[in-house]
Amino acid sequence: MCLKKSVLPLVLAIVCAISVIFAVVVLLNTNNTANPQFTPPPFDDNAIEGTPAPDSDSGYDEVDATAYKIGICGKIKTESNRAFVYLNNLSENNVWIKARVFDSQDTVIGESGLIKQGWYLPYITLFNVPQDKKLTVKIMAYEPDTYHSAGAVTLNAVIKEDGQ
Prior knowledge:
- By secondary structure, the protein is an alpha+beta fold.
- The chain has one helix at residues 2-29; strands at residues 48-49, 61-64, 69-72, 75-79, 82-84, 87-89, 96-102, 108-111, 119-121, 124-125, 134-142, 149-159.
- It contains 1 helix and 12 strands.
- The strands form 2 sheets. A 7-stranded mixed sheet has the order 8-7-11-12-4-5-10, with no helix packed on it. It has a 5-stranded antiparallel sheet with strand order 1-9-6-3-2, with no helix packed on it.
- The chain starts with a helix and ends in a 5-residue tail after the last strand.
- The model has no long low-confidence stretch (mean pLDDT 87).
């Protein structure tokens, strides 16, 4: 009887240790899908330092998004798979920006890389050319170096017809 009393705590201790080891192994091998790792977007290779000079009939204007200002065309000329947006990250800003272009079905059809302050992007390459003439351009801003969001603004635009 004395032997059984001394074995029971030992067996319980072993079972407990195995449970802890199992829990640690499961936790280490589980992918954390609730908080996926953020990958900073690259800077756009087509960005140009300076101020853009789009056509006078492009509807180019500056937009105040409260935390930053951008310049962009409201009437976007397309050639092949390029949408000429002349997206300008004004030099007075303290953010990096990027853009995503959507068609009228809210499908992403193009995306830029990051654009520094004082730089502009003449065009965004489109994955698909839209069937109709309505576009939505979502501008996302990031704090430099930390990539914390500095807000986003969504703008409606149209594809410019020849002669428009």
